[in-house]
Fold this sequence. Notes:
By secondary structure, this protein is an alpha/beta fold. The chain has a domain at 61-215: Flavodoxin domain (Rossmann fold, 3-Layer(aba) Sandwich). It is 32% helix and 15% strand. The protein has eight helices and ten strands. Strands 1, 2, 3, 4, 5 and 6 form a six-stranded parallel sheet that branches. It is elongated, with a radius of gyration of 26 Å.
Amino acid sequence: MLPTLPPGFDEAALQKLTAGHSPQQLVWLSGYLYGQATSAGSGVAAASATPAVTTATVEKLTILYGSHTGNGKRIAQQAAEAAAAQGLTAEVRDMNDYPTRQLAQEQNLLIIVSTHGEGEPPISAEELHAFINGPRAPKLPKLRYAVLALGDKSYLHYCQTGKDFDAKLAELGGTRLLDRRDVDVAFKAPSAQWIEDVLNTLASAATADAGVASATIGATVAVVAEVITEFSAENPWPAKVLESIQMNGRGSDKETYHIELDLAGSGLHYAPGDALAVVPLNHAPLVEEVLLAARLSDTAAVQLATGESLPLAAALATHRELTVLTRDV
């Protein structure tokens, strides 16, 4: 029997969703659903019975620039001044000085970037450009952004870096405030128009958000605290491996690896001194091979020392070490 469900839950649909899954699949599913809830901005940790009054205000506007000549910086400063004139708080940052980990927290972002050489980012934009195209790039469902690409039409890869940023931010889940604007060497008039257009669009988006929030305020107060998951040794977080680098030199008999894991969406935060326990799963083909060799049924119920009953295949995958016996030396 299911515990009391929050309002709005379909018990039949929930049972259908969870039926027929092994314990490790249910663990993965719980982590996936938690990640979806937090990345969608549901406010799981901040749910309140008394919602705040929503007004048509814009959260902080971040303006990032990357260019060789200083044109990008001048345009960024002009955009910040125009935003301030409309009562917006804008922060201007050189991409070279921007902490990449902050990107996941951004809600309103303007990118002003030039292109160097054969379609390459300028030096100040290299790190951020590599970050958003790498395995650590976060999902950005809350982000609204616009890109002003500076270039020179006499070059083959015209405005390529701006195109890269625009496409990748969209791929990561960001929403365009405007279509990317590509400007040639005569950039002053079109860049001024871009600033005006993007600030007007941002103001309109804020007004629309306030209207939607006011219309649906009752629905957003649903009690969601029950779905918060505590991850532990008994209920591990299914982390994605970001990096696995062997640190031993060629010819070494040892295998020491540098491993980086993705904790995004787990609510877990590593601090110096913390211990990390990794709970691996035995490879499914290996489990199947053992069962076939022993002529055992994968669905046969077995009881663990904890008293929990599991299908044999699940028990072998999650609670036993399958390895080759080493000979005594």
